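1st attempt posting a full record on here, be nice pls
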Amino acid sequence: MIQIIEVEFKSGIPLYIQIKNYIREEIKNGTLKVGDKIPSEELLCEKFNVSRITVIRALRDLVSEGFIIRKQGKGSFVDKPNYEEDLSKFANFIHTSPSVKVEHKILKWHLVKPSKEVLDKVKTFKYSSILEIVRVGFHKGEAIALEYIYIPKNISQYFKNKRKLFESKLVYDIYKTIPGIFLDNSRIFIKPVIADKVQAKTLGINIGDPLLLWERITFSKDKKVIEFSRFFARGDKCNYYLEYHK
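the predicted structure (as tokens):
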């Protein structure tokens, strides 16, 4: 016999949202684990005593929010949780720290001539070579982001013995370990893009899949550019939110 879960018909909260919140809480508290099958639409209709269209809408929201995945002919299953980051932390970058643990694998670490793409953002880089660091971010063993970091040659000397830190630390946290360099502010540009061949292969996705590109220019106290980075986050694995306090 199915246990009936009562929804509040007079609460003012749409029924599909109540059902969505119930299932989402079951996932968050571990009652439903990654890979577990969600009850069928028919069973959910009976469980909550609601129409099929209400259940379908709740499941669609859970799919779009990354909590479940639907497999044709098989049903709905709990998906791996997405990486989440509070965007408001970027406003005060010196204290930025990821909301969940992310490990990095370094793919490249070398001096290069700045490309036209980089020079379009940071024209002062044209006077010398720059240190290029390319790394992949992993959350729970899955590649979620590809990051390109560019540092002026005159500053790159301070990073010679800090390569290991780039496997687990944020760039700003590493900068704070270098005496004489004081961070002042950063300018961030955000736009949606689609994965090219290199990004798709590195992140294990398809060419044309959605990515969110973060481009960040960091300035020192004397208003010199000390870092430029391009961060490609998977659209299906990374969620971002803003939290304001009055």
